[in-house]
Amino acid sequence: MALMSSGEFARTSGLTRKALRLYDELGLLTPARVDPQTGYRFYAPAQLEQARLVAWLRRLGMPLAEIRSMSALSSAAAAEKLGARPLRAALDDLARRARIGTAPADTADGAALTSLTSREREVLRLIAAGRSNREIASVLFIAPKTASVHVSNILAKLGAASRTEAAAIAHREGLAAEPSAR
Question: 77, 127, 132, 163: which has the highest count of C-beta atoms within 10 A?
Answer without folding.
Answer: 127
